Every structure is written in C-alpha cells, then in structure tokens.
Amino acid sequence: MAKKRKLESKESNVQKSSPIEVVVEDVTSHPLCLHGPTLLFSNEKGRYFGCSSCRNKKDCTIHIDEEDWEKENVKKRNEKYYSLIPKIDKASAWKNFNEVKSCHYSNRAYCNTCKELYIMSQSKKHLKDHRVTMSLTDEQLTHPSSWLPTLENDAVEAQYMFTKKSVGTILGILKNNKISNIICIGTPSVHEAAQAHPDYDSILLDFDTRHHLFNAPNKYIWYNMFNNYMFNGNEDERILNKFFKKSKNGGICVVMDPPFGGRVEPLAHTLKELEATYRRVCERPDDDTLPVLWAFPYFSEPYIRNILPKIRMHDYQVEYEKHKKFQSKTNTGRKFGSPVRFFTNLPLITIDLSNDKNYKLCDKCKYWVAASNNHCNKCKECTSKNGMTYKHCNICKRCVKPTFFHCGVCERCCQQKGHVCGVVVESQSCYKCKEKGHKQASCPQQTKGNKKRKQA
Ligand SMILES: C[S@@+](CC[C@H](N)C(=O)[O-])C[C@H]1O[C@@H](n2cnc3c(N)ncnc32)[C@H](O)[C@@H]1O
Ligand SMILES: [Zn+2]
Ligand SMILES: [Zn+2]
Ligand SMILES: [Zn+2]
Ligand SMILES: [Zn+2]
Ligand SMILES: [Zn+2]
C-alpha cells in the first residue's frame, strides 16, 4: 500500500523519534484487525494492541489495552474480524486469467473500480464511470505492476516502482551470488521480471490483493510483512514452504521493499521468523543465514544494524520510476539522488556497479561506492551516507556532512543552517550513536537497562 509511503526526502519525516515502541514478540495470540494480528505497542501511558500496518489511525482504528485483552467480552468482540477479512479465491482468479489471456488483446480489460480482470464482450457493468484499462497486451498481463493504477487516491504520488535499471541491478546481484529463487516481499516488479527470465523463479508476498488476478495460485501470497501474516492461512504456508524446499537447488534470497515509513522492528522480526522457517524447511544449521536484500532509506541504518547486525548498508541509490527525486543525479540534474539503499547480508562486493559511471570501486572498502563518496583514512571507511561528500572533524573524531560545522559551545558538529547553541534540532544527530533521525532518548543503541529506567 503505497499510501503509507509519503515520499519525502526529509529524514525528520521518517523514523521520527517516536516515544512509541513495538514490543517484539510472537503475535499469533494478539487481537486481530483487517490487517491480521495486531502488534503490541508501548508508550508512557501503557501497553496496547494496535494495527501492524496502518500508521495513520484513520486507516485502522483498532486499539485494545493490553489488560483488556484478558477480558472475555473483548475477545468475543474481536472475533468478528475472522469473518470480516475477505477471502480471495486464487484458483478461480487464475482460471479467469487464462480465459482472458486466450482472447484477442483488444477484448481484454481490467476495471480498477471493481478490481476485476475481464473479457470486454462478456461484461457491460464496467461501462459507466468505472476506471477501466482496455486492450491489455500479453506483456501487460504478465507485468501488471507496470500499469496498475496506484492504490492511492492522490494521483500525484505515483507508484513506487523500481526503474528497470534497479530491477536489473537486483537480478545482477542475485546472479553474482548464484541465487535463482526469490521471495519478493512488496516487490512485484522484481517478481514479474524474475517470472519472465529463464534463470530465476520467484514468489510474490504482497498486501495488494490485485496481484492474485494475474498470478498462478502458487506464485502469489496475500501477505502482511509487518506481522508475517498470510491471509490464506495454512494453504499459503504450505506454498511458501514448498518454495523454500525447492531452493535447496539454486539458493534463495528475500528481496523486500517496504512502505517508506514502516517500522524497522516488526520488519526485522519478520525476517527472523522467515529465517527460522528457512532453516527448518531446508534443514540448514542454526547459524545459517537467509540471504536478504532490503531496500530502505539510509537514515534507518542504525536501527537496522542494531537489530540485525549481519546486515550492512550498501551505497547504491535505488531508483524509482516516476519519482524525479528518487532517480539518479545524472537523470535529473539534481544534487541528491534517492535516499533508498540496499541493506543486505550478501557480500557487498557482489553489488557490481562497474558499468554505472556514478559509482567507483573503493580499493580499501573493497566494494562499489558513489563516485562522490570519499574514503576517510581516519574513519577507515567511505563515510558518506546521503550522496554528499562528507568531511572529517578531528574533534568529534568522525566524518560529518559538508553542511555541518564544529560548534565550540555545543561541543559537537552541528548543521550550519539555523544553528542555535544548546538547541538540538531533530535533523541533528543523536548524542549517543551520532546517527540522524532520532534523539538520544530514543536511540536504538540504548541498552535495555537504560530504556527501562527511562520508562519507569
Ligand atoms: C514501495 S512499494 C515497493 C514496490 C517495489 N519498488 C517494486 O518495484 O516492485 C511497496 C510494496 O509493498 C506492498 N505493501 C504495502 N504494505 C504492505 C504490507 N503491510 N505487507 C506486505 N506488502 C505491503 C505494496 O503493495 C507495494 O507493492
Ligand atoms: Zn489494521
Ligand atoms: Zn467495474
Ligand atoms: Zn572506502
Ligand atoms: Zn572520517
Ligand atoms: Zn565536530
């Protein structure tokens, strides 16, 4: 659901220093909402169950205090969701797809108002005021993400699809790792490219149910990545397990691109649960790693590293269609490119950008970095995160953005623009981990003991 992903390149808009924490635990006994099991949240007022997926209360109003969940009447009332979550019939959708496909392309249509793929000569109901895409070519039928209208009402915020180049880069990374099976979580364009390529196989796990109209039943799972929930239950679990099993030959990788403002903790928990499934189904040892390629904004790096230490951020700027802001510098002439990077546990050197002139191979880091990134011999790494060239501050003993200066009063490097001594603005970095996007009070690197003391 692209809705939740307000594309702002301002880091303060994302991963805000929210006082709400997610209590990461098994969610199977939690109350349900239309998005599957809720998550347990905790703030200074107490602990409550809320929607795993909707950040905006308007989109999903569920709110149950933790202590109320013990009450019979609350449990009883929540049961209604079992019947409220609609069922999708993948088998008949696939039958319909093949019937539509057998027709001449001029007779094939998709109604976005009704979310139906249909044969035009057989249906008149969509004629009036419905949003219909007509004359679907074979290419369109197998690549619906390239033309399906965005789920959002706001037409200005187009879909957040990777450019063809980014999809090619992803398939290239997998090839370099000799991986041919892909679990596409929220990445329909990668799934569609993999399906069309003889060297890959894939399965799409996505919340957007429109994909079941275009996929064979074993190629799409209606899924929520924030609670690792499969809406079709056991049947889909079996399908995913089968996909894992098959990957004993050819390797496997999760390729995930969550909505922009999604929280790291539940996503990381989902990856851990999928890893456990992978080890169990594929009979892998307990310390075996499930390969992951996760597209997410660079300013989430400290959060991700904190929870998943094996995952590292690469410097490649992931490009998106129709988003000038998110395309590479050379395409748009803009100073900054996309803030989205790959977070991965695959060797960074396998992200080969040798044919992209915006990148260079750092012989010290031994992987490809943005051409504008400078290797700092003091920090011993290519330190830029956001595409600018960082400079080293000898007092702070770290590299900072070029727009920062060392303030003697504050005894730290601060953003030049609008600096007021003693005032920590949100876009400044955390005093503890020196990273941006949060203040010390909500630093992900805070020890558990510290956090508890703060809450008490
Ligand atoms: C930002 S788009 C990524 C699309 C990707 N860049 C591509 O080109 O295929 C986010 C994707 O995640 C899906 N999505 C949104 N919320 C989700 C959720 N809670 N669980 C699973 N998928 C979700 C959307 O339907 C969409 O396909
Ligand atoms: Zn919900
Ligand atoms: Zn219609
Ligand atoms: Zn370097
Ligand atoms: Zn440095
Ligand atoms: Zn400094």
Concise description?
Keywords: Cytoplasm, Metal-binding, Methyltransferase, Nucleus, Transferase, Zinc, Zinc-finger. This protein is an alpha+beta fold and 456 residues long. It has helices at residues 72-78, 80-84, 90-101, 138-142, 164-176, 188-195, 234-246, 264-281, 301-307, 329-332, 448-455; strands at residues 21-23, 32-33, 36-37, 39-43, 46-50, 63-65, 108-111, 116-119, 132-134, 181-185, 201-206, 220-224, 229-230, 252-256, 292-297, 312-313, 340-344, 359-362, 367-370, 375-376, 381-382, 391-393, 398-400, 404-407, 412-415.
Task: From the structure above, extract its key features.
single chain; 456 residues; alpha+beta; Rossmann fold; 8-stranded mixed sheet; 4-stranded antiparallel sheet; globular; disordered N terminus; disordered C terminus; binds zinc ion
Biggest pleated-sheet summary? 8 strands, mixed
State the helix count: 11
Structural class: alpha+beta
Number of domains: 4
Name the helicity range.
Answer: 10-25%
Span of the ends, CA to CA = 37 Å
Average of pLDDT: 87
Read across the widest sheet, the strand sequence of neighbours is 13-12-11-10-14-15-17-16
E-strand count = 25
Mind telling me the CATH class of the largest domain? Alpha Beta
Tell me, briefly, the overall form. Answer: globular
Organism: Manduca sexta
InterPro entries: DNA_methylase_N6_adenine_CS (IPR002052), Mlase_EEF1AKMT1/ZCCHC4 (IPR041370), ZCCHC4 (IPR039846), Znf_CCHC (IPR001878), Znf_CTCHY (IPR017921)
Keywords: Cytoplasm, Metal-binding, Methyltransferase, Nucleus, Transferase, Zinc, Zinc-finger
Domain CCHC-type: 430-445
